[in-house]
Amino acid sequence: MTEASRLKATLYVGGLDNAVTASTLHAAFIPFGEIVDVSLPKPEIPSSTDPHRGFGYVEFELPEDAKEAMDNMDQSELYGRVIKVAAAKPQKEANEGLGSKTAIWEQEGWLAKNAVSEEDRMAAERARMGGDDRLDDPMQGLEGLDVAGPKPA
Question: Which of 109, 110, 114, 146 has the fewest CB atoms in 10 Å of its CB?
Fold first, then answer.
């Protein structure tokens, strides 16, 4: 199974009670299709007494089964709590996003989204060096713009 199709067949299940176990989650979702994996991420703090972080992932064999489970189980009740069931999002890399140890402007994702073209970079360099194509007065050349309507011929 490819990573993309595997992600389509994986559901995020949030709002879980501490009494919910992997087998409980498996039993709740098995009516919708064959389940490949159920995972309940453990708390990051080693001293925590909670069995999981209040959410989990259910991976189905087929994406159609996952969609059916999502449509039927979202906003349903499990152990007295309303659960949220949604399509799982891809996990971010440890060196991406705001929680990483790498400066945001050095990250690949940020660079791809905010990269500056070579032309803009050259214009900024000329402006820094005091290029002669820069106007001294930013309002220069705007004198005739205070009149609305077409220009007289």
Answer: 146
Asked whether residue 35 carries a pLDDT value surpassing 60, the answer given is yes
Residue found by looking up tokens 């069931």 in the block: 85
Q: How far apart are CA 48 and CA 44, in angstroms?
A: 8
Q: Are 73 and 57 spatial neighbours (Cβ–Cβ below 8 Å)?
A: no
The helix or strand, by DSSP H or E, that contains position 38, with its residue range, turns out to be: strand 35-39
pLDDT in tens, 61-72: 999 999 999 999
CA dihedral 103, 3, 7, 106 (to 10 degrees): 10
User: What b/e readout covers 63-72, taking b as 16+ CB neighbours within 10 angstroms?
Assistant: bebbbebbee
86 phi/psi in degrees, rounded to 5: -145, 165
Chain position carrying tokens 């007295």: 80
Rounded CA separation 8/10 (Å): 6
- Global pTM reads 0.60
CA atoms 32, 75, 90, 42: torsion sign: negative
